[in-house]
Design a protein that fits this description.
The protein is mainly α. It is built from 15 helices and 3 strands. The protein has a 3-stranded antiparallel beta sheet with strand order 1-2-3. Helix 8 (205-222) packs antiparallel against helix 9 and helix 14 packs antiparallel against helix 15 (369-389). The longest helix is centred in the N-terminal third of the chain and has 48 residues, at 28-75.
Length: 394
């Protein structure tokens, strides 16, 4: 057979070539050197190649990780685990889905809506016996219907602002790509239908009209159609937020409990008037403040917010001044109460909130988006705190 056979003998390797009777003796040292050099070179090339590839992959992964860290840090959003960071198990899939929906729903607005409805509903309570099953049912109906409409409004805003949010809020599901546009459309459509259905089934006209007006203003605020997308105009945008947060929430949900649940005539009491007036200030502050950390994306996409027109520092201190004025008026209103307990709680409570706000405002670094965003979320916490004090106004 025409094959090379490598054998061995005491003096060295012998090379047999079929068809020849002559044996060729090859030096053992020489053969080993050739083989060793050949495999050593191949091994070294293999090691260098994979080492270089490992360095490149590590560097790329590190750069991606650092980039994502910086994006989330500058956005002011809490750092979260990246999708796919954990094994793809059913439980982790459920957790990722819940986390995405949590961010999509804008939880600070959800908490604010729920607290405001419960607080305003308590203003209709005149005696202890009013706290009954019909009251709880009426409050639950209002909260659930309003939260579904809230998700429609914030979801529609995200659908309309996908490109802007890639700059301002890259952690939101639509901006990050976790949700497709179709998924977003299905969610907002479903929640708007369920909200109207519940409002209609309950049979409360104040509740239904609250949902309808919120739907109209929320749509006009966000949707990019001729004569709409009112968020482009700073004053109109602020009026939309004021109308929903200050007027509709206070009056409509109070009337829902007062007229529909208790079947009493509408009475515009001192606490109700105070709540409407105070939340008018607060709503304007929220409308102005929310644009301060978003100045970069708003400039790129032509949103003429007051922050873009006047600058971050000027708008920031305008918001702080408006809130401090509102707290000052609240202290005066509390001081006029004929109930000692109400006077003590409201005066002391608003004084503490005003002091905390001022201290926090003085510590904010206006050059840091993360610091401004954190302060904005702190404003929402003051919003929550106010709704704990409103039912105590007498």
């Amino acid at each position: 057979m025409d094959a090379l056979i490598l054998g061995s003998s005491t003096g060295g390797h012998s090379l047999f070539i079929p068809g020849f009777s002559r044996r060729v003796q090859v030096s053992t040292c020489y053969s080993y050197n050739i083989i060793e050099n050949f495999y050593t070179k191949r091994f070294r090339k293999h090691i260098v190649k994979h080492h270089a590839r490992g360095i490149q992959e590590t560097s790329t992964a590190s750069q991606k990780s650092n980039t994502k860290f910086l994006v989330k840090a500058t956005s002011g959003h809490p750092l979260e685990s990246e999708p796919g960071a954990y094994p793809d198990t059913p439980w982790n899939s459920v957790k990722n889905a819940l986390d995405a929906f949590y961010r999509f729903s804008r939880p600070h607005t959800v908490i604010g809506t729920a607290l405001s409805i419960v607080s305003v509903s308590l203003l209709a309570v005149e005696k202890l016996s009013d706290i009954s099953s019909p009251f709880y049912t009426g409050v639950l109906e209002a909260v659930v219907a309003a939260l579904m409409m809230n998700i429609y409004i914030v979801g529609l805003n995200q659908l309309s602002d996908i490109e802007i949010d890639k700059v301002n809020k890259p952690y939101l599901p639509l901006a990050s790509g976790e949700y497709s546009t179709l998924t977003g459309i299905l969610i907002v459509t479903s929640f708007s239908i369920m909200s109207f259905w519940l409002g209609w089934v309950v049979g409360s006209w104040p509740l239904f009209w609250a949902l309808f007006v919120s739907f109209v203003l929320g749509t006009a605020y966000s949707v990019n159609l001729p004569l709409l997308r009112w968020k482009r105009f700073a004053l109109v945008a602020a009026m939309c937020i004021l109308a929903v947060r200050a007027v509709i929430v206070q009056l409509a949900f109070y009337l829902h409990i007062q007229s529909h649940v208790f079947s009493r005539p509408a009475v515009f009491s001192k606490p109700l008037i105070f709540a409407t007036a105070f939340m008018s200030f607060f709503s304007v502050v929220i409308a102005l403040f929310k644009d301060i950390p978003d100045i970069e994306g708003d400039k790129i996409f032509g949103i003429k917010s007051y922050t873009v027109r006047l600058g971050q520092e000027r708008v920031f201190w305008t918001c702080i001044s408006l809130l401090e004025m509102a707290y000052g008026v609240s202290i005066l209103v509390g001081a006029t109460s004929s109930y000692t307990w109400s006077k003590a709680i409201t005066v002391l409570g608003h004084s503490i909130l005003a002091a905390i706000l001022w201290i926090r405002a003085k510590s904010v670094d206006l050059k840091s988006k993360a610091a401004i965003t954190s302060c904005y979320m702190f404003i929402w916490k003051l919003f929550y705190a106010e709704y704990l004090l409103i039912p105590l106004i007498r």
